[in-house]
Amino acid sequence: MDRRPNFLVALALLVLSCVGAVKGESSAGCGKTPTITGKQYSMTNRPYRLVFTWHQLGGSAQKIVDGKDTSRGGALPYYGLNAIANNSAIFVVPQGLNAGWGNQGGEDVTFFDQLAKTVAADVCVDTRLRFSTGFSYGGAMSYALACARPKDIRAVAVISGSQLSGCTGGNDPVAYYGQHGTSDSVLNVSRGRQLRDRFVRNNGCTAVSETQPSGGRSVKTVYQGCNPGYPVTWKDGSVIFAPKNTWDFFTQFS
Protein backbone atom coordinates (compact mmCIF):
# COMPACT_ATOMS: atom_id res chain seq x y z
CA MET A 1 0.00 0.00 0.00
CA ASP A 2 1.32 3.41 -0.92
CA ARG A 3 1.53 5.75 2.03
CA ARG A 4 1.39 9.44 1.37
CA PRO A 5 3.86 11.34 3.55
CA ASN A 6 1.85 12.85 6.38
CA PHE A 7 3.72 14.21 9.34
CA LEU A 8 4.49 17.39 11.21
CA VAL A 9 7.92 18.62 12.23
CA ALA A 10 8.52 21.05 15.08
CA LEU A 11 11.90 22.72 14.76
CA ALA A 12 13.47 23.72 18.02
CA LEU A 13 15.21 26.57 16.19
CA LEU A 14 15.31 27.79 12.64
CA VAL A 15 18.46 26.12 11.38
CA LEU A 16 20.35 27.75 8.54
CA SER A 17 23.04 25.49 7.14
CA CYS A 18 25.84 26.97 5.08
CA VAL A 19 28.49 24.99 3.24
CA GLY A 20 31.56 26.78 1.95
CA ALA A 21 32.41 26.27 -1.70
CA VAL A 22 35.69 24.60 -2.56
CA LYS A 23 37.81 26.30 -5.21
CA GLY A 24 36.77 25.08 -8.62
CA GLU A 25 33.34 23.85 -7.45
CA SER A 26 29.96 25.56 -7.66
CA SER A 27 27.79 25.76 -4.57
CA ALA A 28 24.15 24.69 -4.47
CA GLY A 29 23.11 28.33 -4.56
CA CYS A 30 24.58 28.97 -7.99
CA GLY A 31 21.96 29.84 -10.57
CA LYS A 32 19.30 30.57 -7.94
CA THR A 33 17.69 33.82 -6.94
CA PRO A 34 19.17 34.71 -3.53
CA THR A 35 16.78 34.66 -0.57
CA ILE A 36 19.34 35.97 1.93
CA THR A 37 19.03 39.73 2.23
CA GLY A 38 21.13 42.43 3.82
CA LYS A 39 20.25 41.92 7.48
CA GLN A 40 21.69 40.21 10.53
CA TYR A 41 21.25 36.42 10.82
CA SER A 42 21.95 33.96 13.59
CA MET A 43 23.17 30.48 12.77
CA THR A 44 23.12 27.25 14.76
CA ASN A 45 25.07 24.27 13.47
CA ARG A 46 24.86 21.83 16.36
CA PRO A 47 22.89 18.63 15.76
CA TYR A 48 19.62 18.15 17.64
CA ARG A 49 17.96 15.20 19.27
CA LEU A 50 15.16 13.79 17.14
CA VAL A 51 12.01 12.66 18.94
CA PHE A 52 9.18 10.77 17.23
CA THR A 53 5.84 11.19 19.02
CA TRP A 54 3.17 8.71 17.91
CA HIS A 55 -0.52 9.34 18.59
CA GLN A 56 -2.99 6.94 20.18
CA LEU A 57 -5.80 5.11 18.36
CA GLY A 58 -8.26 7.64 17.00
CA GLY A 59 -5.82 10.48 17.56
CA SER A 60 -3.95 12.52 15.01
CA ALA A 61 -0.69 14.34 14.46
CA GLN A 62 -2.46 17.69 14.81
CA LYS A 63 -3.98 16.72 18.14
CA ILE A 64 -0.55 15.83 19.49
CA VAL A 65 0.77 19.20 18.32
CA ASP A 66 -2.20 21.09 19.78
CA GLY A 67 -2.57 18.98 22.92
CA LYS A 68 -6.21 18.23 22.15
CA ASP A 69 -6.30 14.52 22.97
CA THR A 70 -7.63 14.97 26.47
CA SER A 71 -7.77 11.30 27.45
CA ARG A 72 -4.93 9.99 29.60
CA GLY A 73 -1.55 10.54 28.06
CA GLY A 74 -2.36 13.13 25.45
CA ALA A 75 -3.47 16.32 27.17
CA LEU A 76 -0.23 18.26 26.64
CA PRO A 77 1.28 19.31 23.29
CA TYR A 78 3.98 16.89 22.19
CA TYR A 79 3.19 14.81 25.29
CA GLY A 80 4.57 17.70 27.33
CA LEU A 81 8.11 17.23 26.06
CA ASN A 82 8.53 20.29 23.87
CA ALA A 83 7.84 22.57 26.83
CA ILE A 84 10.82 21.19 28.77
CA ALA A 85 13.19 20.45 25.89
CA ASN A 86 14.66 23.96 26.00
CA ASN A 87 15.16 24.11 22.23
CA SER A 88 17.34 21.01 22.26
CA ALA A 89 15.23 18.69 20.12
CA ILE A 90 13.27 18.40 16.90
CA PHE A 91 9.91 16.66 17.22
CA VAL A 92 8.36 14.64 14.42
CA VAL A 93 4.66 13.86 14.76
CA PRO A 94 3.47 11.21 12.27
CA GLN A 95 -0.11 10.61 11.18
CA GLY A 96 -1.27 6.97 11.17
CA LEU A 97 -3.35 5.22 8.53
CA ASN A 98 -6.87 4.72 9.89
CA ALA A 99 -5.80 6.84 12.88
CA GLY A 100 -3.66 4.02 14.24
CA TRP A 101 -0.49 2.00 13.84
CA GLY A 102 -1.56 -1.46 12.67
CA ASN A 103 1.83 -1.85 10.94
CA GLN A 104 0.49 -4.46 8.53
CA GLY A 105 3.35 -5.99 6.62
CA GLY A 106 5.70 -3.62 8.43
CA GLU A 107 4.26 -0.57 6.63
CA ASP A 108 4.52 1.74 9.63
CA VAL A 109 8.12 0.75 10.32
CA THR A 110 8.85 1.51 6.65
CA PHE A 111 7.08 4.84 7.16
CA PHE A 112 9.45 5.53 10.05
CA ASP A 113 12.43 4.72 7.83
CA GLN A 114 11.25 7.22 5.25
CA LEU A 115 10.55 9.90 7.85
CA ALA A 116 13.93 9.50 9.49
CA LYS A 117 15.67 9.75 6.13
CA THR A 118 13.62 12.76 5.02
CA VAL A 119 14.19 14.73 8.22
CA ALA A 120 17.90 13.94 8.43
CA ALA A 121 18.38 15.14 4.86
CA ASP A 122 16.85 18.53 5.59
CA VAL A 123 17.65 19.52 9.18
CA CYS A 124 20.60 19.09 11.51
CA VAL A 125 20.02 16.07 13.75
CA ASP A 126 22.26 13.69 15.65
CA THR A 127 21.46 10.31 14.12
CA ARG A 128 22.76 8.63 17.28
CA LEU A 129 20.12 10.39 19.36
CA ARG A 130 16.80 9.38 17.86
CA PHE A 131 14.01 8.61 20.32
CA SER A 132 10.44 7.39 20.14
CA THR A 133 7.49 7.74 22.48
CA GLY A 134 3.74 7.49 22.47
CA PHE A 135 0.66 6.62 24.50
CA SER A 136 -1.39 3.44 23.99
CA TYR A 137 -1.18 2.68 20.25
CA GLY A 138 1.64 5.23 20.08
CA GLY A 139 3.43 3.25 22.78
CA ALA A 140 2.88 0.08 20.78
CA MET A 141 4.46 1.72 17.74
CA SER A 142 7.46 2.82 19.79
CA TYR A 143 7.82 -0.75 21.03
CA ALA A 144 7.64 -2.04 17.44
CA LEU A 145 10.50 0.29 16.51
CA ALA A 146 12.57 -0.89 19.47
CA CYS A 147 12.10 -4.43 18.15
CA ALA A 148 12.61 -3.76 14.45
CA ARG A 149 15.05 -0.81 14.41
CA PRO A 150 17.30 -1.17 17.47
CA LYS A 151 20.25 0.41 15.62
CA ASP A 152 18.20 3.46 14.66
CA ILE A 153 16.48 4.22 17.98
CA ARG A 154 18.56 5.17 21.02
CA ALA A 155 15.72 4.86 23.52
CA VAL A 156 11.96 4.52 23.73
CA ALA A 157 9.34 5.62 26.23
CA VAL A 158 6.35 3.29 26.01
CA ILE A 159 3.34 4.70 27.84
CA SER A 160 0.44 2.33 28.54
CA GLY A 161 1.45 0.23 25.55
CA SER A 162 0.77 -3.28 24.33
CA GLN A 163 1.95 -5.42 21.45
CA LEU A 164 -0.47 -3.98 18.93
CA SER A 165 1.99 -3.00 16.20
CA GLY A 166 4.03 -6.20 16.17
CA CYS A 167 7.61 -6.95 17.11
CA THR A 168 9.78 -7.99 14.18
CA GLY A 169 13.16 -9.04 15.50
CA GLY A 170 13.04 -7.98 19.11
CA ASN A 171 16.30 -9.61 20.19
CA ASP A 172 18.62 -6.61 20.45
CA PRO A 173 19.00 -4.12 23.31
CA VAL A 174 17.39 -0.68 23.31
CA ALA A 175 17.24 1.68 26.28
CA TYR A 176 13.70 1.31 27.59
CA TYR A 177 11.40 3.43 29.75
CA GLY A 178 7.92 2.07 30.39
CA GLN A 179 4.98 3.46 32.33
CA HIS A 180 1.52 1.99 32.80
CA GLY A 181 -1.49 2.68 34.99
CA THR A 182 -2.54 -0.32 37.09
CA SER A 183 -6.20 0.65 36.72
CA ASP A 184 -6.08 0.75 32.90
CA SER A 185 -9.29 -0.98 31.78
CA VAL A 186 -8.43 -0.94 28.06
CA LEU A 187 -4.87 -2.27 28.05
CA ASN A 188 -4.17 -4.12 31.27
CA VAL A 189 -0.92 -3.32 33.03
CA SER A 190 0.20 -6.93 32.53
CA ARG A 191 0.46 -6.23 28.81
CA GLY A 192 2.80 -3.32 29.44
CA ARG A 193 4.90 -5.46 31.75
CA GLN A 194 5.29 -8.08 29.03
CA LEU A 195 6.80 -5.46 26.73
CA ARG A 196 9.13 -4.29 29.48
CA ASP A 197 10.28 -7.83 30.29
CA ARG A 198 11.53 -8.39 26.75
CA PHE A 199 13.97 -5.50 27.11
CA VAL A 200 14.89 -6.45 30.65
CA ARG A 201 16.18 -9.65 29.02
CA ASN A 202 17.59 -8.03 25.88
CA ASN A 203 19.45 -5.42 27.90
CA GLY A 204 20.96 -7.96 30.27
CA CYS A 205 19.25 -6.49 33.34
CA THR A 206 18.61 -8.39 36.54
CA ALA A 207 14.94 -9.33 36.86
CA VAL A 208 13.23 -8.34 40.12
CA SER A 209 10.02 -9.32 41.86
CA GLU A 210 7.05 -7.16 40.90
CA THR A 211 6.40 -4.36 43.39
CA GLN A 212 2.71 -3.64 43.59
CA PRO A 213 1.68 -0.01 44.11
CA SER A 214 -1.09 0.73 46.56
CA GLY A 215 -3.11 3.64 47.85
CA GLY A 216 -3.10 5.46 44.52
CA ARG A 217 0.67 5.74 44.61
CA SER A 218 3.12 4.79 41.88
CA VAL A 219 6.26 2.68 42.07
CA LYS A 220 9.40 3.36 40.03
CA THR A 221 11.88 0.57 39.37
CA VAL A 222 15.33 1.22 37.93
CA TYR A 223 16.70 -2.14 36.88
CA GLN A 224 20.22 -3.07 37.88
CA GLY A 225 22.91 -5.00 36.04
CA CYS A 226 21.86 -3.77 32.60
CA ASN A 227 24.44 -3.69 29.82
CA PRO A 228 26.23 -0.32 29.71
CA GLY A 229 24.20 2.20 27.74
CA TYR A 230 21.00 0.14 27.87
CA PRO A 231 19.11 1.00 31.05
CA VAL A 232 15.55 -0.06 31.79
CA THR A 233 13.21 1.98 34.01
CA TRP A 234 9.63 1.05 34.82
CA LYS A 235 6.92 3.00 36.58
CA ASP A 236 3.42 1.81 37.35
CA GLY A 237 0.51 2.89 39.45
CA SER A 238 -2.42 5.26 39.13
CA VAL A 239 -0.46 7.87 37.22
CA ILE A 240 -0.81 9.78 33.99
CA PHE A 241 1.88 10.43 31.43
CA ALA A 242 4.83 12.17 33.08
CA PRO A 243 6.87 14.29 30.64
CA LYS A 244 9.76 14.79 33.04
CA ASN A 245 10.26 11.03 33.50
CA THR A 246 10.55 10.54 29.76
CA TRP A 247 12.72 13.58 29.18
CA ASP A 248 15.10 12.68 32.01
CA PHE A 249 15.43 9.19 30.57
CA PHE A 250 16.13 10.45 27.05
CA THR A 251 18.58 13.16 28.04
CA GLN A 252 20.91 10.83 29.92
CA PHE A 253 22.25 9.97 26.46
CA SER A 254 24.54 12.40 24.68
TrEMBL record:
InterPro entries: AB_hydrolase_fold (IPR029058), FaeB/C/D (IPR043595)
EC numbers on record: 3.1.1.73
Annotated keywords: Carbohydrate metabolism, Hydrolase, Polysaccharide degradation, Secreted, Signal, Xylan degradation
MF terms in GO: feruloyl esterase activity
Catalytic activity entry: feruloyl-polysaccharide + H2O = ferulate + polysaccharide
Single biological process term from Gene Ontology: xylan catabolic process
Signal sequence coordinates: 1-24
Broad EC category: hydrolase
Domain of life where this protein originates: Eukaryota
Protein name (Swiss-Prot/TrEMBL): feruloyl esterase
Keyword match Nucleus: no
Subcellular location: Secreted
GO cellular component, as recorded: extracellular region
Principal location class: secreted
